[in-house]
Design a protein that fits this description.
35% of the residues lie in helices and 24% in strands. The protein is an alpha/beta fold. The strands form three sheets. Strands 1, 2, 8, 9, 10, 11, 17 and 18 form an eight-stranded mixed β-sheet that branches. α1 runs parallel beside α2, α1 runs parallel beside α6 and α7 runs antiparallel to α12. 40% of the residues are buried.
Length: 397
């Protein structure tokens, strides 16, 4: 099959740049298509990655703005503190990280074209561009994020939460008062649960110089989210808003296809997103490694049916965890603010701060859920009138 290149990748964000780098390392000719002239803008990420990132991709030290070892978890009336003995997450300069990953790919002989992909012939490997040009390849990879053009071509249904975030400056004393604690401010993130934004949550991520990324994801409109964040700030802090951002968080569905003919999807384009937290970069980087293996094999053996093994391996690795997180999400969605306060009170009474600190993990919530079930805590911490619904959600007998 004569083509312009082996692989066309739509989207030169962190996922597109990473799979481009991996494939070029294997000797394939790779072309990145990117409609933006400046990578990373506008910012659409909270910029917090678990320290497990180092198992999946490079992370230069100069891109790390801060590191945290725990979190304060808030409802209207209660605060839980959970922490590890070591750092569990890095706060990063996400724009600089995107630029680093793209530069790494380009230095590895990956070609980039700053044009928009508007349509595809996925049977014959043709990508149509916005200037009436086209480019041919053996495989097309969609890393074009939320509302992916390639995912639409595959006829996937794409659902999402809205997300909004602000860069905010908050005086030290104001933050200490909110936490009711004088722990080092930069060592912890904060999360806040409220019935109006469930199944999402609000986050406060410390940067430096008293600056924080404060944002949330929910089913609300961006305008409603903006109003919610401002009201939250007015009720709790002295503050100054420096910048505002908004974006979308795709919702994973195992009914959608990651592969069809010569096309595959990775990252937000495939909704490779953790249901409970809305994060997905580590999963996407892992998916890049899985995809690289099968793309290379499919090209070397001239058999595109091998690509379907990428989806099989991804689901084998992540579907069970996603299912657990969807169950947690459904359970939280049952709770009112009064229920959330009761839930946190019972967590405190049953020494669950220590259990969450020991078994909690940013990337894998199923371990903590299983520990709660093992210890018989689920029905000790939830309002009794919800027992039947929780039993149905988790399938307890």
């Amino acid at each position: 099959m004569s083509t312009d290149c082996d692989v066309v990748i739509v989207g030169a964000g962190p996922v597109g740049s990473t799979i481009a780098y991996y494939l070029s390392n294997k000797g394939l000719t790779v072309t990145l298509l990117e409609k933006k002239t400046q990578i990373g803008y506008p910012l659409q990420c909270a910029g917090i990655l678990s320290t497990h990132i180092l198992q999946y991709n490079e992370l230069p030290k100069e891109i790390i703005l801060n590191a945290v070892q725990g979190a304060f978890l808030h409802t209207n009336s209660h605060i839980l503190k959970v922490q590890k003995d070591e750092n569990v997450a890095y706060i990063i300069d996400r724009i600089a990280y995107d630029e680093y990953l793209l530069k790494r790919a380009l230095n590895n002989k990956v070609k980039i074209i700053n044009k928009k992909a508007i349509d595809f012939d996925i049977e014959n490997g043709i990508t149509f561009l916005n200037d009436n040009e086209k480019i041919t390849s053996k495989i097309i990879i969609g890393c074009d994020g939320y509302n992916s053009v390639l995912s639409n071509k595959i006829s996937n249904t794409q659902n999402n939460f809205n997300a909004s975030q602000m860069l905010v400056e908050i005086p030290q004393k104001s933050m200490e008062n909110y936490r009711n604690n004088n722990e080092p401010l930069n060592n912890y993130v904060d999360t806040y649960l409220n019935e109006d934004i469930l199944p999402g949550f609000l986050w406060i991520i410390p940067l430096k110089n008293n600056q924080y990324r404060i944002g949330l994801f929910s089913n609300q409109t961006h305008k409603q989210q903006d109003d919610f964040i401002k009201e939250f700030l007015n009720q709790n802090f002295e503050y100054e808003i420096i910048e505002k951002y908004k974006g979308f968080i795709p919702i994973f569905s195992d009914k959608n296809n990651m592969v069809k003919n010569r096309a595959i999807l990775i990252g937000d384009a495939a909704a490779h997103i953790k249901p409970t937290s809305g994060g997905g970069l580590l999963i996407a980087f892992d998916a890049c490694k899985i995809a690289c293996k099968y793309v290379c094999e499919a090209i070397n053996k001239d058999n595109i049916n091998i690509l379907y093994d990428y989806q099989k391996e991804f689901l084998n690795r992540y579907q069970k965890e996603f299912n657990y997180q969807f169950k947690v999400q459904k359970t939280l969605n049952l709770l009112s603010n009064e229920d959330l306060d009761y839930f946190f009170l019972k967590l405190k009474e049953n020494n669950c701060e220590d259990i969450i600190s020991e078994y909690g993990d940013m990337d894998t919530q199923s371990t903590l859920v299983k520990e709660f079930v093992k210890r018989g805590l689920i029905f000790k911490i939830m309002p009794t009138f919800l027992f039947k619904k929780i039993i149905k959600i988790f399938g307890f007998r």
